[in-house]
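# step 3/5: fold
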Amino acid sequence: MPSPIADCGLASADYTDQTHPRVAVDAVLFSIFAGALQALLVKIKKGSYAERWAFPGGLVQVGEALDDAARRELYEKTGVQDLYLEQLYTFGDARRDPAAHTVAVAYFALVPDPGRTLRRGEKYADIGWFPVRTLPQLAYDQGVRVLLLHHLAEGLPVASRERGVAHDV
């Protein structure tokens, strides 16, 4: 039987033998300053998305709870800790990551002090705040996430917009 990954149109054949998706967590951090809602992004150093901006995150370790993974990844990749994180959305398109079929669970938090010291993780070239309405092109399938961010920024309930977002992309 052919692999479902091979059938989904992925350009990379490196992981057609992958039997299960990987699970990742991403942290979407918001802050309000300079008169606008801002989001924290990191610039990827290497790989398929080198020089592209993304939300900080990474893979869940075996035996690790999603919430714990989100806190760990956030601290390791940005130095940010002690924030209340809430699960926002799960992204499961098999084509979102050319390296492997990866399901991403997005978390969000409001950072009350955007001036706090940020520390970029080793796999990142840069880190910074960007106005949500003018985010640069993002890695992975994070364009879908930007649409969700716009809905949040406009105060619209995400749940009522999910179907339209999914079909518009």
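# step 4/5: annotate
The radius of gyration is 16 Å.
# step 5/5: archive (pending)
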